[in-house]
Amino acid sequence: MKRNNYNKIDKILELPQEVCSNVPKISIIGFDEIIIENFKGILEYEQFFIRINTHMGIVNINGYNLSLENMTDDDIKVKGKVESLDIERTVD
């Protein structure tokens, strides 16, 4: 299980925060691919709408022909024609 705190040793070793904590990392490649690291689960999944829960909030992806690929325990890849992405922050 990952720690919630980003401590001094992690900073000294220059480890990225998303590696040492539950902070999500969202990578967008063009308009066809989104990779979300440190996700908790899938809340809704349709070809035009996907909601993914993270430790800091919910990521909403809207588009066409959306599909989930390469899902592991910690990251997920969404492919398709992405129209928009928004985040519902649930943690301060």
Q: Any idea of the CATH topology?
A: Immunoglobulin-like
Biggest sheet: strand arrangement:
1-2-6-5-4-3
The separation of the N and C termini measures: 21 Å
The largest pleated sheet is described as: 6 strands, antiparallel
> What's the order of the H and E elements?
HHEEEEEE
- β-strand amount: over 45%
Rg, alpha carbons: 14 Å
Task: Characterize the quaternary organization of these chains.
Answer: single chain
Mean pLDDT score: 83
Query: What share of the residues lie within helices?
Result: under 10%
- In the CATH hierarchy, the architecture is Sandwich
Please tell me the total number of domains: 1
Structural class from helices and strands? mainly beta
Parts with pLDDT < 50 across at least 5 consecutive residues = 1-5
CATH class: Mainly Beta
What is the number of beta strands?
A: 6
Instruction: Specify the number of helices.
Output: 2
Shape: globular
Overview of the molecule:
The protein has 92 residues and is mainly beta. The protein has a single domain (23-89), classed as Immunoglobulin-like, CATH 2.60.40.2000. It is built from 2 helices and 6 strands. It has helices spanning 8-12, 17-20; strands at residues 25-29, 33-37, 39-45, 49-54, 57-69, 75-89. A 6-stranded antiparallel sheet has the order 1-2-6-5-4-3, with no helix packed on it. A hairpin with a 3-residue loop joins strand 1 (25-29) and strand 2 (33-37). The longest helix is centred in the N-terminal third of the chain and has 5 residues, at 8-12. It is globular and about 45 Å long. Mean pLDDT is 83; it is low at 1-5.
